[in-house]
Amino acid sequence: MLKSTLRFAAGAVAAAVFAGMACGGASAHEVDLKRLPVGDDYVTDSGARVGWAWACRVDPTAGGAYKQGPWFNGDGTYDLTAKAIVPGNVSWNPKFAIEKRGSDRVFSTNDLPNHGTGVYPVDRNSEAYKYDRNPNSIEEQSISFTLPAEPKIGQPKCLPGAVGILLSGTVLFSPLDEPGRDAVAWETQDKCQGHPQRTGVYHYHSVSTCVDTETQSDGHSALVGYAIDGFGIFGRKDVGGEALSSSDLDECHGHTHEVDWDGRRVEMYHYHATWDFPYTLGCLRGDYDRSMGRLLGGG
Ligand SMILES: [Zn+2]
Ligand SMILES: [Zn+2]
Question: Which ligand is located closest to the Cα atom of residue 237?
C-alpha cells in the first residue's frame, strides 16, 4: 500500500512541477497539486460557468465519505499527493468494444477496467477506510449504447451522474459525489482513481492517470474517452505538452482546435482532463440522452 501511494505522489508532483515550468511561472496553466481548490463551492444547479460543475441534480442527504481526510489543508484547498489510496491490485477480464457504424459510434462494455483495481469493499485496516468506508464490491455490468460519431455543439446542458466512458472500458461519473461535493477531494479511490458505487459499477470521477498516458505527435494528449454527447475527452496536455487548467477551457471544460479523430486530423470541439476541479466536464456541449446517466450507473 505504501509503495503505490508513493508512486502516485511522485508522478503527480513531477506533473505539477512540469506544468509550472512549461508556462514560465505564474500563469493560467500552473496548478499546485498540494493546494488544489476543493470544488464544493463551485457546484451549481443553474447554468454553466468556467471552473464550475453544473449538476442536473444533487442530493445533500445522500451518503459519501463521512469525514475529511488529513489531505484537506483547512483553507479550501486539498493536497492530492497526500490522499489515502485504496490498496490492492486486482486483475479483471474486461470486455470492451467500440465500433463506428455510419454516423453512430456503438459501445459495449462489462465495465471491468483493463488495469488493476484496489480491493473492494475497502479493507478495514487500510488508511483509506478511516475516511471513506466504501462497502461496495466491483461487479461485472452489461452496458450497450450508441453515441453520435460526429456530434454537434449546442446550448450547454447540466451533468447527470454519469458523463462518459474512458478507453479502459470503465464509466466516467461527474466530478461530484452523491451529496454534490467534490468527489475527488472527498472520496477515496484506488491507484487508478476508480471505485464501485452501490450496484457495483466501477467508475472514475476524474480521468484516470492509468488511462491518460499517451500523446498525439503535436504533444497534445491523446483521446482518453467519450462524453455522453459523443464529443471526445482528451488528457491533461495542450498542443506543445503543457498541462491545461480549468481556466484555460470554456464553461463545459473544452475547447476547439485540430485533433486526431477517427484516424484523421479534424478541427472540432473536445473536452480535456485537468488536475483541478471540475477535472473532466463542467457541462455538456452537445445533446445527450437523459437516460444515459442511469444506464451508466450514475443516476
Ligand atoms: Zn464515486
Ligand atoms: Zn485540446
Answer: 2
User: What's the predicted TM-score (pTM) here?
Assistant: 0.90
Per-residue pLDDT reduced to its tens digit, 100-118: 999 999 999 999 999 999 9
- The arithmetic mean of pLDDT across residues 146-171, rounded, is 96
Domain of residue 29 covers 2-295
Alpha carbon 117 to its chain's center: 16
Amino acid at 119: V
Q: Which of 253, 230, 85, 291 is nearest to 156 (CA)?
A: 253
CB distance 164 to 59 below 8 Å: no
Q: Name the closest ligand to CA 267.
A: 2
The answer to whether 179 and 58 have CB atoms below 8 angstroms apart is: yes
Ligand closest to Cα of 132 equals: 1
Is the predicted pLDDT of residue 59 greater than 90, yes or no?
Answer: no
CA of 197 to the centre of ligand 2 (A): 30
CA 122–ligand 1 middle distance (angstroms): 13
Distance 152 CA to ligand 2 centre (A): 17
Distance, CA 195 to ligand 1 centroid (Å)? 6
Query: Nearest CA to 238 among 225, 251, 257, 252?
Result: 257
Please tell me whether the peptide bond between 121 and the residue prior to it is cis, using omega within 30 degrees of 0: yes
pLDDT, tens digit (0-9, with 9 covering 90-100), for 249-282: 999 999 999 999 999 999 999 999 999 999 999 9
For residue 89, the CA-to-ligand 2 centroid distance in Å is: 32
Among the listed residues 83, 46, 92, the one whose alpha carbon sits nearest the alpha carbon of residue 196: 92
Ligand minimally distant from the alpha carbon of residue 232: 2
Place of cell 466536464: 281
Ligand 2 centre to CA of 105 (Å) is 21
Residue range 87-104, pLDDT digits in tens? 999 999 999 999 999 999
Angle at 171 between CA 289 and CA 254, to 5 degrees: 70
Q: How many domains does the chain have?
A: 1
